[in-house]
Amino acid sequence: MIIQIIGQAGSRKTTVAKMLASRINATHINADDVRADLNKDLGFSIEDRVENARRLGALARLLEKQGQLVIVDFICPTQATRDAFGKPDIQVWMNTIKEGRFEDTNKIWEEPKDFDFQITEDISSKEAVDGIITRFGLFDWQRPTTLMLGRYQPWHEGHQALMDVADSRTGQTVVAVRNTHGTSEKDPLSYEQVVESIHKMTLRPAIVQLPNITHIVYGRDVGYKIEQVDLGAEIHAISATQKRKELGI
Fold it and tell me: Fewer beta carbons under 10 A from the terminal one: N or C of the chain?
């Protein structure tokens, strides 16, 4: 997913982008940082602004292909620069000031017409982040969350039933996939294939890859619970081995 945050210089784009990136565990691309290095050959002519936007869009898409959730914040002042960037999954317009601190940008600024979410001057940065997360149902990494840790070779109805219970505990669940690919004949699926098997049944959880966790230790007063859930004999009888046979793996 790519989230683009646009607006005049001084509209709090970067402040909101940094806060949002922390809340949703995203990679944050700031155009000023990119211009200082990767795009330092570009100026501020119309042509260079369009090329800058194109490169930022390309960079965002490359990171997205690597499984990253990406936030890009930059002025992106005209429809031409927005077209060059490409269509983000979510476009947020920081409509908090009428003019920015750069006169040349003020002269060419065009108000966006197809934005997905608008932040106005009376909304605080925290309220803006809360609003974006709520409006688009983004996974909030600061909310209480239930963890499911497993191999999931493959994800099946038993895991799905367990996730229903997990969601009932905190309202959101993260599925941590142990990297066991190829360590035994019971582990034929790569991480990407496990994710695919999960998404065939549900799009609800956040999914992360972890090392091949074999031990969990904790001290006292750690702030979380470890709970075994009894789903009943019928659910417990579901066999991942049988599922692999049915899938021919």
Answer: C
One-letter amino acid for residue 148 of the chain: M
Q: Are 240 and 228 in contact (CB under 8 A)?
A: no
Does the domain at 146-247 match CATH 3.40.50? Answer given as yes
Cα 59 → chain centroid: 16
40 vs 159: CA distance, rounded Å = 49
Q: What is the pLDDT along the chain (249 residues), one digit of tens a residue?
A: 999 999 999 999 999 999 999 999 999 999 999 999 999 999 999 999 999 999 999 999 999 998 899 999 999 999 999 999 999 999 999 999 999 999 999 999 999 999 999 999 999 999 999 999 999 999 999 999 999 999 999 999 999 999 999 999 999 999 999 999 999 999 999 999 999 999 999 888 889 999 999 999 988 888 888 999 999 999 999 999 999 999 888
2-136: CATH topology is Rossmann fold (3.40.50)
- The answer to whether 27 and 70 have CB atoms below 8 angstroms apart is yes
Strands (E), 7-161: 27-30, 70-73, 90-95, 117-120, 146-150
